[in-house]
């Protein structure tokens, strides 16, 4: 009995393992910064916190929250009303009640409004005499570059253009890239967030919404109702502590330092807390993302080889099954990669993260393997098949000893093609929280920082070359000299 009491006391004396809370953020600077602020306050509250940065647009991050892949993320009341609940004009109390029906809570207002707006170069707006959105009607020749999400939103470009009578046809462009394009004179106007630091940086004018189209976009955190009360209290404590001026300064700090953690530290410094910011070395930035990327590519490619070669073998045989297999794998390839990721996320088995990314990459890897396997087997001269059959070899032995060795160069070419394509496609997996080198690329795009983009793009390109070289060496090792391509 005494031993059990001693064991119990030892167990009670051990520190309790911190509960993990996953914070998400969308793929723009302010969301990254708010995610880092949430990470810090939740950590201080005793939780182990993971910040999945830049998960994607509203639909993906909202789905991640409702499925439990993340516990909280920063959002805006206008987006909640217009896009998530699809009930424009809701007051905060009604909004909170509607969210609660879906198992989601809303933190206290953070203290600022980050609305949408239409921005132009200040000098160009002055030259043309444009001060309001209504003034754009007189200038249909202006070229608009609008972010992809805003083009599709219920409170986005189409209803805005209808209300103001705008006839220009906008091009879709990444939000951060649009500012650089505007500064360079490649476009004349774009949508903006009114707390974006780029407005001051590029000397832009936000046109007056003279017809009152834009709703309020008060910043808040959405969280799952099953989140621990202590975590909810930590998020609520941020209420009213960030005004527009502060948020603009935090966004500017992120753009200046290229470090969202540094921007979050500036917020806490303003609150009287001295936060030490660890600046990762180049190796610390790239190495974890590279390992994640290798896992994405390696697992999905292995699965594609294990499934694709048998499918290609079936497709090499005459009959209706051949056409079906080749058509199906070809059809998968026609689905845009980002669309496929988005379609998989809401499904029960998937969600955000590695599982969904690996499955999508597996599907995209099939076509070259299946087609090349079928083509390689079909290209075997009939005389060789007949000779093998005349020797009395059973079908399985003919396939293993004669047909596969002859078709191997073509099969390996398909696998190599899939591997190289997979390395590039895997960068998109960052948009569903699967990490990889794409996370650096997405972060660089949000910051409009070429150096950060290259930290992800260059290793991905080098990895593709290494993969191609590795398959060239493999071919020399396993393919007979006379059959090498």
Distance between the termini: 75 Å
Question: In the CATH hierarchy, what is the superfamily of the largest domain?
Answer: MetI-like
- Can you list the strand order of the major beta sheet? 3-10-4
Largest sheet: 3 strands, antiparallel
Poorly predicted spans: 4-17
Q: What's the CATH architecture name of the largest domain? A: Orthogonal Bundle
Structural class: mainly alpha
Indicate the proportion of strand residues.
5-15%
Enter the CATH topology name of the largest domain.
MetI-like fold
Return the domain count: 3
Helical content, roughly? 55-70%
| Overall pLDDT level | 87
Oligomeric state of this protein: single chain
For the record, what CATH class of the largest domain applies? Mainly Alpha
Q: Radius of gyration, rounded?
A: 27 Å
Contiguous helical run count: 21
The tally of strands reads: 10
Shape: elongated
Description of the molecule:
With 485 residues, the chain is mostly helical. The chain has three domains: 20-110 and 219-270, Periplasmic binding protein-like II (D-Maltodextrin-Binding Protein, domain 2), CATH 3.40.190; 116-206, D-Maltodextrin-Binding Protein, domain 2 (3-Layer(aba) Sandwich); 282-483, MetI-like (MetI-like fold). Helices cover 58% and strands 9% of the residues. It has 21 helices and ten strands. A three-stranded antiparallel sheet has the order 3-10-4, sandwiched between helices. Strands 8-5-9 form a three-stranded antiparallel sheet. Helix 12 packs antiparallel against helix 13. The longest helix is centred in the middle third of the chain and has 34 residues, at 282-315. The radius of gyration is 27 Å and the shape is elongated.
């Amino acid at each position: 009995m005494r031993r059990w009491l001693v064991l119990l006391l030892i167990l009670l004396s051990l520190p309790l393992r911190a509960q993990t809370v996953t914070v998400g953020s969308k793929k723009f600077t302010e969301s990254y910064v708010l995610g880092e602020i949430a990470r810090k306050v939740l950590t201080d509250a005793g939780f182990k916190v993971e910040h999945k940065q830049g998960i994607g647009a509203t639909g993906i991050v909202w789905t991640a929250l409702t499925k439990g892949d993340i516990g909280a993320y920063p959002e805006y009341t206008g987006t909640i009303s217009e896009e998530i609940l699809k009930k424009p004009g809701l007051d905060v109390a009604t909004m909170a009640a509607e969210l609660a029906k879906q198992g989601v809570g809303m933190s206290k207002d953070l203290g600022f409004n980050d609305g949408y707006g239409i921005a132009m170069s200040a000098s160009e707006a002055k030259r043309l005499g444009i001060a309001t959105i209504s003034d754009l009607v007189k200038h249909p020749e202006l070229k608009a570059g609008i972010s992809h999400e805003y083009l599709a939103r219920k409170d986005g470009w189409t209803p805005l253009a209808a209300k103001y009578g705008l006839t220009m046809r906008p091009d879709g462009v990444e939000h951060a890239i649009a500012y650089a394009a505007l500064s360079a004179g490649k476009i004349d106007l774009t949508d903006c967030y009114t707390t974006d630091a780029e407005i001051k940086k590029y000397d832009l004018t936000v046109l007056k919404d003279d017809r009152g189209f834009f709703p309020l976009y008060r910043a808040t955190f959405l969280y799952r109702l099953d989140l621990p009360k202590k975590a909810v209290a930590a998020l609520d404590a941020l209420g009213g502590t960030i005004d527009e001026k502060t948020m603009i300064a935090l966004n500017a700090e992120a753009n200046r330092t290229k470090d969202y953690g540094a921007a979050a530290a500036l917020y806490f410094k303003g609150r009287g807390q001295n936060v030490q910011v660890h600046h990762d070395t180049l190796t610390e930035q790239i190495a974890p993302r590279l390992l994640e990327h290798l896992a994405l590519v390696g697992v999905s490619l292995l699965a594609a080889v294990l499934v694709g070669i048998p499918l290609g073998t079936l497709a090499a045989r005459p009959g209706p099954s051949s056409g079906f297999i080749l058509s199906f794998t070809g059809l998968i390839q026609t689905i845009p990669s980002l669309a496929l990721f988005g379609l998989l996320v809401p499904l029960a088995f998937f969600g955000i993260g590695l599982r969904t990314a690996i499955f999508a990459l597996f599907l995209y890897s099939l076509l070259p393997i299946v087609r090349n396997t079928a083509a390689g087997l079909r290209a075997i001269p009939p005389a060789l098949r007949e000779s093998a059959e005349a020797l009395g070899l059973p079908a399985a032995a003919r396939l293993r000893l004669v047909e596969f060795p002859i078709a191997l160069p073509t099969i390996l070419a398909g696998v190599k093609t899939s591997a190289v394509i997979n390395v590039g496609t895997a960068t998109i997996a960052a948009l569903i929280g699967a990490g990889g080198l794409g996370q650096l690329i997405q972060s660089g795009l949000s910051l409009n920082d070429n150096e950060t983009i290259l930290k992800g793009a260059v290793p991905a390109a080098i990895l593709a070359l290494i993969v191609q070289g590795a398959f060239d060496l493999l071919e020399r090792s396993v393919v007979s000299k006379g059959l090498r391509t």
